[in-house]
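Pilot study result, target chain (259 residues):
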Amino acid sequence: MEALFGNVVLMAVCMARPTAMILILPLFTRLGVTGILRTGIAFALALPVAPHLANDLPNVIAVGGGTLTAVILKEMVLGLLLGLLFGVPFWAAQSAGDVIDTQRGSSIAYMVDPTALSEVSIIGTFLELTMLALFFIGGGPNLVIGAVYDSLLLWPIMTSFPEFQPDTGRLLLGLLDKVLLLALLIGGPIILVLFAVEAAMALISRISPQLPMSDLSLPIKGIAVFAILPVYVVFMADQMKRILGQLGGVLPELGRYLQ
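Predicted structure:
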């Protein structure tokens, strides 16, 4: 019975970091990885780590539940940080689509996505799924798994929580700036086209006040978006690949802020 309890505690500690990352990373949440499937992925990621931790765990159990809880919380915080940094490109793509849909006046047409468990925009969903497809094609899952295991070398499970550097807060706040900047890079050209269409409609309404431009604005902007989107998506894919290529520096970036 004691051996069984030890094995359960061992797997709980090893699964804390990957589980926290899976809970927040769109690579898993957007594709509907929940429940037992999520637990199974975390369990698979934790299996190679468990034998290396087996020798140190009895000492932690002997210390008490408080120390064990602190270790699990520390692992979950590190997993959440990894998930946040890897999730930036996907949230940027979603934000770009949300802005485009809002600008073309179709925010009323938001749909309920069962995988996102919330209302999502049509183009936002398209751009995010495109980003996910490029991520899988480029071997992104291997990058994420490698980062999880490499993070164990930087911050082993049985060590104390890494020390925050003075500019660690800049990293967390900078994630918002990065999401918005990447969203503008991804959706900026289409947003500019919509502004040009609005300016043209405003000029037409001044020249011909009898035309109901307020009624025509929604279909005209919708046609403009879906006319340019198939052409622009070719260039957008290259931009997305460049953004995803930067994910290789996630772990070194996090290492600069946590020592």
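One observation from the pilot: The longest helix spans residues 168-207. A full batch analysis is planned for the follow-on phase.
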